[in-house]
Structures are given as C-alpha cells and as structure tokens.
Amino acid sequence: MKIVLLGPPGAGKGTQAKSISNKYSIPHISTGDIFRYNITQMTPLGIEAKKYMDKGQLVPDDLTIDLIKDRLTQEDCKNGYLLDGYPRTVAQAESLKNALEANNEKLDCALLIDVPREFILDRMTGRRVCPSCGASYHIKYNPPKNGVNCDECGNEVIQRADDTASTVNNRLDVYEKQTSPLVEYYKGENQLLVVDGTQSINDVFKQICEKIEAI
Ligand code: ADP
Ligand code: AMP
C-alpha cells in the first residue's frame, strides 16, 4: 500500500502516521523528520535545510525530491510506504508520479486530514515532540503519560524550533500557496480521500481505517 498524507501543518499527519504505519505494516516516511535528523547530525543537507525550516519556508524541490527518490528505493519500501509531509508542491507530486509510473505502479490514495486554519495555532504551539523517535504530543489534547517523557522511548519531549506563533503563521501561508493545490491535483488523479481532522485523535484514526479499507 502506498499512501500520501495531505493536510496543513498541525493537521495531525504525524500523529495518525504512527498508527497507520503500525496497523498496516508500512514504513512512515516523514521528510520533516529526515531533515530534523540531518540538522542534529549537522550534515550538509541538514545545514542547508535549516536555513529554510527556521523561516517556515519549504526546502527547495531539488534537494527534497532527490532525498525521497533515494529513500523510496530502500528495501523496507518494497511493499509500500506512508509519506508524511511529501509531496508539498506540484513539482514534487509530479516527480513521485513519474517515479511510480516508471515501475508500472501508482499511489493507492492521497488522504487529506482536513482541519480549518482556526484550529491550527493552538495545535502547533501546544505540540511537543520526541527528538529521538519523532512521536508527537500535545500539552492539552495528547500529553505524554508522565507529562515530560516520550511514552515510546522515554526521552524528554521538546518544543520544535518552528512551532512559535510567528513561524506557524508563515507556514500556514506557505501551505495555502504552495501545498494546498495538491488537493485539486489528487482529486484530478481520482486518488483523493478526505477525513474530518477536527475530531478526536481516535475518531480521526477510525475514519482513516474505514477509508483505506474501502479502497
Ligand atoms: P502534523 O504532522 O500534521 O504537522 P501532528 O500530528 O504533529 O501534525 O499534530 C499537531 C499537534 O496537534 C500535536 O500536538 C498533536 O498531538 C495534536 N493533534 C493531532 N491530532 C489531533 C486531534 N485530532 N485533536 C487534537 N489534537 C490533535
Ligand atoms: P513538517 O515536519 O512536515 O512540519 O516539516 C517541517 C519543515 O520541513 C517544513 O516547514 C519545511 O521547511 C521542511 N519540509 C518538510 N517536508 C518538505 C517537503 N516535502 N518539501 C519542502 N520542505 C519540506
């Protein structure tokens, strides 16, 4: 199964991706997590990506497309994958489509987690993440069990550098301008599925499973 998760920053893609990946046994590939890992390792890719991420801008297509092309050729992607945060531009979507078509493959669906802008600031400024495994928490809606440490791996959760109110607003503008056209793009490909992302984390997951199992 090959799935793309769509939705604005803060929609719940990372949160749902963990559950989808576990239930359907497909790797969760988050370009944001890959960039953040490269930043902590201070690789050339991380140093370059950080310039854009700190401002809430997209990392240029050429860097991001090459990164994903390489990742999708790895052994664990043989039976499918779940892309979270990729594609984010029409050029990225076209590149993915071409790479799949070259192997006579296609996506099973692009799943939009639909959340209106007025919900997002609260979700993103209250988000806490595990710097080690990438698990996403929220101080009000989904806190770690002891309030401080990741439930999965025990590391102390932190606030992401780009989850401040000013950067969040910029990221939402970037989403509307550069990424939201992908909703029409995947509608045109007959691959778009939509779930209501304003419901509870469990209820969003239920909707997602129903949609996936009806394909
Ligand atoms: P994305 O990966 O789309 O940027 P996340 O999965 O990190 O978003 O979720 C953003 C924030 O919102 C996190 O703090 C997460 O715990 C919280 N969250 C996710 N889904 C819901 C939901 N359905 N209801 C309330 N809060 C949610
Ligand atoms: P995310 O973790 O998905 O919220 O992404 C965090 C940041 O990483 C974004 O604001 C971008 O700067 C960068 N990023 C992640 N995925 C992409 C992508 N597909 N294209 C360009 N930039 C990306």
UniProtKB/TrEMBL annotation:
<dbReference type="Pfam" id="PF00406">
    <property type="entry name" value="ADK"/>
</dbReference>
<feature type="binding site">
    <location>
        <begin position="10"/>
        <end position="15"/>
    </location>
    <ligand>
        <name>ATP</name>
    </ligand>
</feature>
<dbReference type="GO" id="GO:0005524">
    <property type="term" value="F:ATP binding"/>
</dbReference>
<keyword id="KW-0067">ATP-binding</keyword>
<keyword id="KW-0418">Kinase</keyword>
<feature type="binding site">
    <location>
        <position position="92"/>
    </location>
    <ligand>
        <name>AMP</name>
    </ligand>
</feature>
<protein>
    <recommendedName>
        <fullName>Adenylate kinase</fullName>
        <ecNumber>2.7.4.3</ecNumber>
    </recommendedName>
</protein>
<feature type="binding site">
    <location>
        <begin position="85"/>
        <end position="88"/>
    </location>
    <ligand>
        <name>AMP</name>
    </ligand>
</feature>
<feature type="binding site">
    <location>
        <position position="127"/>
    </location>
    <ligand>
        <name>ATP</name>
    </ligand>
</feature>
<keyword id="KW-0479">Metal-binding</keyword>
<dbReference type="GO" id="GO:0008270">
    <property type="term" value="F:zinc ion binding"/>
</dbReference>
<dbReference type="InterPro" id="IPR027417">
    <property type="entry name" value="P-loop_NTPase"/>
</dbReference>
<feature type="region of interest" description="NMP">
    <location>
        <begin position="30"/>
        <end position="59"/>
    </location>
</feature>
<comment type="function">
    <text>Catalyzes the reversible transfer of the terminal phosphate group between ATP and AMP. Plays an important role in cellular energy homeostasis and in adenine nucleotide metabolism.</text>
</comment>
<feature type="binding site">
    <location>
        <begin position="136"/>
        <end position="137"/>
    </location>
    <ligand>
        <name>ATP</name>
    </ligand>
</feature>
<keyword id="KW-0963">Cytoplasm</keyword>
<dbReference type="GO" id="GO:0004017">
    <property type="term" value="F:AMP kinase activity"/>
</dbReference>
<feature type="binding site">
    <location>
        <position position="36"/>
    </location>
    <ligand>
        <name>AMP</name>
    </ligand>
</feature>
<comment type="subunit">
    <text>Monomer.</text>
</comment>
<comment type="similarity">
    <text>Belongs to the adenylate kinase family.</text>
</comment>
<feature type="binding site">
    <location>
        <position position="171"/>
    </location>
    <ligand>
        <name>AMP</name>
    </ligand>
</feature>
<keyword id="KW-0808">Transferase</keyword>
<feature type="binding site">
    <location>
        <begin position="57"/>
        <end position="59"/>
    </location>
    <ligand>
        <name>AMP</name>
    </ligand>
</feature>
<dbReference type="GO" id="GO:0044209">
    <property type="term" value="P:AMP salvage"/>
</dbReference>
<keyword id="KW-0545">Nucleotide biosynthesis</keyword>
<feature type="binding site">
    <location>
        <position position="130"/>
    </location>
    <ligand>
        <name>Zn(2+)</name>
    </ligand>
</feature>
<keyword id="KW-0547">Nucleotide-binding</keyword>
<dbReference type="InterPro" id="IPR007862">
    <property type="entry name" value="Adenylate_kinase_lid-dom"/>
</dbReference>
<dbReference type="InterPro" id="IPR033690">
    <property type="entry name" value="Adenylat_kinase_CS"/>
</dbReference>
<dbReference type="InterPro" id="IPR006259">
    <property type="entry name" value="Adenyl_kin_sub"/>
</dbReference>
<feature type="binding site">
    <location>
        <position position="199"/>
    </location>
    <ligand>
        <name>ATP</name>
    </ligand>
</feature>
<feature type="binding site">
    <location>
        <position position="31"/>
    </location>
    <ligand>
        <name>AMP</name>
    </ligand>
</feature>
<keyword id="KW-0862">Zinc</keyword>
<dbReference type="GO" id="GO:0005737">
    <property type="term" value="C:cytoplasm"/>
</dbReference>
<dbReference type="InterPro" id="IPR000850">
    <property type="entry name" value="Adenylat/UMP-CMP_kin"/>
</dbReference>
<feature type="region of interest" description="LID">
    <location>
        <begin position="126"/>
        <end position="163"/>
    </location>
</feature>
<dbReference type="Pfam" id="PF05191">
    <property type="entry name" value="ADK_lid"/>
</dbReference>
<feature type="binding site">
    <location>
        <position position="133"/>
    </location>
    <ligand>
        <name>Zn(2+)</name>
    </ligand>
</feature>
<comment type="pathway">
    <text>Purine metabolism; AMP biosynthesis via salvage pathway; AMP from ADP: step 1/1.</text>
</comment>
<feature type="domain" description="Adenylate kinase active site lid">
    <location>
        <begin position="127"/>
        <end position="162"/>
    </location>
</feature>
<feature type="binding site">
    <location>
        <position position="153"/>
    </location>
    <ligand>
        <name>Zn(2+)</name>
    </ligand>
</feature>
<feature type="binding site">
    <location>
        <position position="150"/>
    </location>
    <ligand>
        <name>Zn(2+)</name>
    </ligand>
</feature>
